Amino acid sequence: MRGGGLEGFWQRAGGDQCRFVDEAFAAVAKDYDRLVRLSSCGLNRGWRRSCVEACDVARGGWILDCATGTGELALLEFLRPPPGAVSWVALGYLRWLVPPLAGLLAWSRAPWTLATYLPRTIEAGPSVPELVEAVEGAGLRVTLVNSLFAQVVWLVVAMKPPRRLGETVKR
Questions:
Q1: pTM check: above 0.70
Q2: Where are the domains of the chain?
Q3: Other CB atoms closer than 10 Å to residue 13's CB: what's the count?
Q4: Cα dihedral 17/20/25/28 (nearest 10)
Q5: pLDDT tens for residues 118-168?
Q6: Which end of the chain is less enclosed by CB atoms within 10 A, N or C?
Q7: What is the pLDDT, as a whole number, of residue 70?
């Protein structure tokens, strides 16, 4: 991930990015899902439903959820949007309205800090084509890419390709 002005946040944890992220999420863990629901005006529930439907997983099946807050359900969640008015408005909302709301609703500075940090990670993070390239470079096959909201929230579905008969597993 490019720096994108994130270094100032990391300095709060002695310059250690991993420590900052761990501490920031730990401080808001009990409020995180509620704050996401409120800041997305409840849209996040539909995003998660879209993800489950797109994965076409049988009831009781498994979906890998990684690096997505408390892990309610992965949506490989925010990606750097392409330039444009819709993306600009969405990032403005995330950058200027969500942090004060998070601070007020949680009655602490920790959610405000995390809400201030997250839009900057979106701006510094990968674009959709960069993520697709990385996922496919890891040996997965991307089967769906769909913007769920303002070209900021994305649904990216990838599957491990089936092995061919006689193919050996690399170790």
A1: no
A2: 7-159
A3: 15
A4: -160
A5: 888 888 888 999 989 999 999 999 998 998 888 888 888 888 887 777 766
A6: C
A7: 47
